[in-house]
Amino acid sequence: MIKQLIICLLIFHFSHLASGQKLSNQNIKELISSYKMDIRGPYKEIRWFCTDGSIRQPKDPCPDKIGPGVQHATYKSSVVDLGKSNHIYLGQILAYTEKEEFWDKENNYSRLKQYQLDKYLRSVDDGWALQKGQYYRGAIQSEDEEAWGIEFYKWLLSDTDNLKKHFFLIRQSLKDIPHQGDDNLAQKIRSESKVISDMAPSFMDLRVKIHSQPDAGDVAKVNTFKSNNSGKLSLEVKDKIENLSRIMTSFYQPVDISALPKRTPLVLEKQIGLDISAFATLYSKEKNTAFLIPATAELLLSIRQALIAEHSAAARLQLLDASLKLEEIIFKKSPEWQPEDINGLLDKVCYLGMANAGAGYIELEEWHQLNLASKQNSLGDLSATLEHARREVEWSSSMVKANYQDIVDIYTGFEPKAYGYIDDMIRGSIALYLGKTVGELGDLIARESALTNAIMDIDNQSGFRGLNSGYALGELVVVNGSPDEIEVASDKIYVFQRPPADLKPVAGIATVSEGNMVSHVQLLARNLGIPNAVLADDNLRNLIKYDGKRVFYAVSNRGNVIMKPESDMTPEERNLFSKKERREERVRVPIDNIRLQENKILDLREVDASDSGKLCGPKAANLGQLKKMFPNKVVEGLVIPFGIFRSHMDQLMPEGKVSYWEFLNTIFKDAETMRTQGISEGEVENFQLRKLETLRGAIKLIPLQAEFLAQLEKGFTGILGKNLGEIPVFLRSDTNMEDLKDFTGAGLNLTIFNVVTKEKIIAGIKDVWASPYTERSFKWRQKFLLNPENVFPSILVIPSVDVDYSGVLITKGINSGRPLDLTIAFSRGAGGAVDGQSAETYEIYEAGGVQLLAPARETYHNRLPTTGGTEKKTSTFENFILNDQNIQDIRNLANSIRETMPKETNSDYEGAYDVELGFQNNKLWLFQIRPFVENKKAQSSDYLESIAPKIDMSKKIDLSKKI
């Protein structure tokens, strides 16, 4: 009685709280705990819901004259309030939900995803929020849920756009939403095995096997485990093992291929129906998986292609269910296909890739960009096939994450078990076996080319691929969750699921998701010679046991990766780390020619590349140069030069004792004094950061001079064409530390997006002036510059262009290494590619042709309304961002830049350029150009060259060679 009273009080408290405000994660966690203890869980009472809208008591069913009703539970008021305040829906009853509300288009399909995630949590946590409520009789009627599911999919699939844009999401939801009596047995197997291993740790090895390499033989292994450990297991564990054995036995029953035509009666007379019937006739008794899987993959892809042409929603539902059965066949049978030679292995890679596309883990247009059918026998051709196959594995994982990461992140805040959901989905997909087979091909090619990775003692090392060459020694930190709250240190090596948006200096980095190769984070890593690699999900998990250990980490110029314990380093590797060498890598910001006396706002048309580092930073100088070269591709703009910042810094600080400039210089003088006194570098750095924080806060409140404000008003009216406060603009920090000969400084300081009002523009100017003194910017400068105190910010003010998509062009093939190729990365909306989003990335070959390196996988993108700020819009992935004309325009632009930039600037620079650009209604706009700076020391290091084998790509491989 007391326990029930406590539950009631908790629920009343949170219900009252939720009605007034959004609940915190801790509040939600406590609320779920109260539901777990309640025999009704999140439900209140059972009622009849009649077709006339009336609600009746459980023993008073709807009368015949009204028509049949449905019986189910109602929600507790706290559950309803949680939906209103946080848009979190627990214990959803489908028969109690409107179709449009469940599809939840306005919230990126959140409620549907929550339903799926809720089912997963129930399976891994004994009912989760319904721990006791799962036994509340009558709360949910399975036949009503199934009938609702059928009607929901008929409604959803009647819209062809839904199928085109959300094929993966819809198909995945079919595994969880009841609509024909089937159940997601594969997920139940993984969930049950996890629960058993949590209760009986000795089951862990078997759980790992079931999760990573499942096959029909696991049933016997489970039964053997129970028999061998009978005396050590509790009765509850024995019951769970028996249940797992029953589920596995049911799951591994052969799919009745001959019944497939009966499952698709609405298309029997159509071509796809004839294909299904022919498949059922030819393969219902096929035992040879080398024949069965290719045929199944081809039909799986054909069904996906046929779905759009089919107009009947009911027929589409039948085809999707048939598609799920075909995926089940491949998932079960893949372990049985054991190729004997390289030919067979290439076939397996190709057809698992095809099946993976048919099942929606990549888009059809992406599949057409991959060439997995090649049977050329040179080492170079085989390596190209491997590269394409690796891409498909990476794209598949990113498809799952793009669709579900948002809701997983929300739930992980109050339920850590939710984090395992994405991993569970990937392990239940064809992509699991595709990845394993690609790993086998990678190992084979590595042996033939001697290009092998050496990462501790982990398995499947072909999942590692180097991005930036370099070497590091430091503590290994493996981050399996979100990286955004991690405080990084410059002497540590980090392994992330995805790179953080604002990475501070680190010794080395490896990520499962590389973001894109031309983001600011990647360019900084490349510039400073920080070793950087991508790895597979399994690789990250396998490295967790080394978290906290000191390791040596190196990436060669050819992309092979070494990671070993510090104790295993060779004398040559130890000699790489000397203070002298580090000191020599640092450079001095040139200030001899800086013109701080220039104290008026400039028209962008008045500056060019020769003014960089003198009047303003390279962003404004180079954009002014581009304005002269490409007047119709560059907006008008204002430049606030170094001198205006410097004159403001001569004003007295708020306490009135010293000027801002004196305060700044004293920080660095005091730091040098501390070093001469033997104070540790860590303490010196902390002292500087505290003082810089004070300075930064003061600059944000600095009074702007009346003359400067008058110039600003005049510049907006005369140059930008509208009064200050009437046109949205970007404020771009533009310091003299950027684009030095050996240092890019990309993305270290502030850009303020799309501000309109006079007050926000003035505040933004102060924020930009303060941004070089943030911890992140300061730490990167300290790592590389000898005189970081002599950093001066100018500001580039340009009107906003609400681009449809934007990105980066590098006038070099980063992947190929060829200087006349191009690398481009684009995201929808403004700024995504630069900020490290998963961007649509291509290599454009000088000899002709284009290669897709990665598709965009970002659900949200920024648009720039005329009212200021940013609007988040959602994206789908069925179409590519760039069209053929866009790519040709970029190719033409790159040729013009290469030809005219050196002439116009009287420069002897012969390297590549880093260009920011965008398209609005297919018109190309230029926003920035800078030299593309690479770390030549890392590229030319004798050691890095020594660990990169010389590879003869023309070497012929006998494809009939046994494996």
TrEMBL record:
InterPro entries hit by this protein: ATP_grasp_subdomain_1 (IPR013815), PEP_synth (IPR006319), PPDK_AMP/ATP-bd (IPR002192)
Metabolic or biological pathway: Carbohydrate biosynthesis; gluconeogenesis
Cofactor(s) listed in the protein's UniProt record: Mg(2+)
Matches recorded under SUPFAM superfamilies: Glutathione synthetase ATP-binding domain-like
Enzyme class (EC, first level): transferase
Keyword Metal-binding carried by entry: yes
Keywords: ATP-binding, Kinase, Magnesium, Metal-binding, Nucleotide-binding, Transferase
EC numbers: 2.7.9.2
Domain Pyruvate phosphate dikinase AMP/ATP-binding, chain residue ranges per copy: 615-942
Record's catalysed reaction(s): pyruvate + ATP + H2O = phosphoenolpyruvate + AMP + phosphate + 2 H(+)
Role noted for this protein: Catalyzes the phosphorylation of pyruvate to phosphoenolpyruvate.
Family note: Belongs to the PEP-utilizing enzyme family.
PANTHER family: PHOSPHOENOLPYRUVATE SYNTHASE
Official protein name in the record: Phosphoenolpyruvate synthase
Organism: Arenibacter antarcticus
Source organism phylogeny: Bacteria, Pseudomonadati, Bacteroidota, Flavobacteriia, Flavobacteriales
